[in-house]
Hints:
The chain is an alpha+beta fold. 33% of the residues lie in helices and 17% in strands.
Amino acid sequence: MYWIIVIIGAFDFDFLDVDIDIGADNSGPFYAILAFLNVGELPFMLIISIFILNFWIISMLIYYLPFVAVGGLLNGILLIPTMIISIFLTKYETIPLKGIFKYSNMQDNKDNQVLEQLCILMCDVKDGRLGQAKIKRDGASIIINVKSEYEEESFNKDEAAFVSRKDTNKDIYYIVKLDL
């Protein structure tokens, strides 16, 4: 039903975009399953859709097992291995998709060059804290996370600044004051 609504256009792919804070140590069984399923490299809803499709297909195939009792405790117990098999199938079915989505979230391609551009700050940036800035384009504007290149510089909301470099590990752009 979700994908039918997406195809119609009522929702976009980011409708159920979830930001889960599972702790600073990023450990535990839940995080291990997410990492195993390539959640950081592929859209979450795509992985969940593939998992549910696999789970449903295997659950339907259980009907053909030679058991006399339909339903009940036995079929409930069979859902556990069905889920485990679905997780492994999802892992290996999504491996080829990594190449397709590898560069989908990058803003620094040739069409959306951000470095060495003027930006307008959307909030105050002081004391080495993060902020956001907008770079105006012919189409939609680009909103980027920014930080002052020099800790002693502070910027006010709606002030213009120059994007000097990007820290690709943190996905932060560093800005400097304009010399007018």
